[in-house]
Write a structure and sequence with these properties.
alpha/beta; 136 residues; globular; 7 helices; Rossmann fold
């Protein structure tokens, strides 16, 4: 089975009061050992909760992260991919926002399929498998 890396928008959708049923069903079919996210996404989720000054949302984010997801760091392996990827995209005039670039480098360095609603952003990353589970 393919290991999946969930982007911020996908995990945000899971945290909604009424998460999309199709997304919940799809996640249920993926074993917890195949579910990951990045340290970058964790930071973005916790930032969003802190910005809203919502202890309840912060607790829900932490519960989600502790329940099933493995968190992949931005380490040397990802940094190697990041440097090459950033230079290549800049040469081609197809820049990517810094958090997305780091998420892409982490996923690509580990051979993970990135699950995101922002397919247009990530499609420009060569050799990165991308799926959209948020599309209706």
């Amino acid at each position: 089975m393919t290991p999946y890396c969930f982007d911020t928008d996908v995990l945000s959708a899971v945290l909604r009061r009424d998460p999309p049923l199709a997304l919940v069903r799809r996640l249920a079919r993926v074993p917890p050992t195949e579910q990951t996210t990045t340290a970058i996404t964790v930071g973005e989720l916790l930032y969003g909760a802190a910005r809203r000054e919502s202890p309840t949302l912060t607790r829900r984010v932490r519960e989600l992260l502790e329940s099933a997801l493995s968190i992949v760091p931005f380490d040397r392996r990802a940094a190697e991919v990041y440097g090459e990827l950033r230079a290549g995209l800049e040469r081609e005039g197809r820049r990517l926002d810094e958090p997305d670039l780091r998420i892409a480098a982490i996923a690509r360095s580990r051979g993970l399929t990135l699950v995101t609603g922002n397919v247009r952003h990530f499609e420009r990353v060569p050799e990165l498998a991308v799926e959209n589970w948020l599309a209706a």
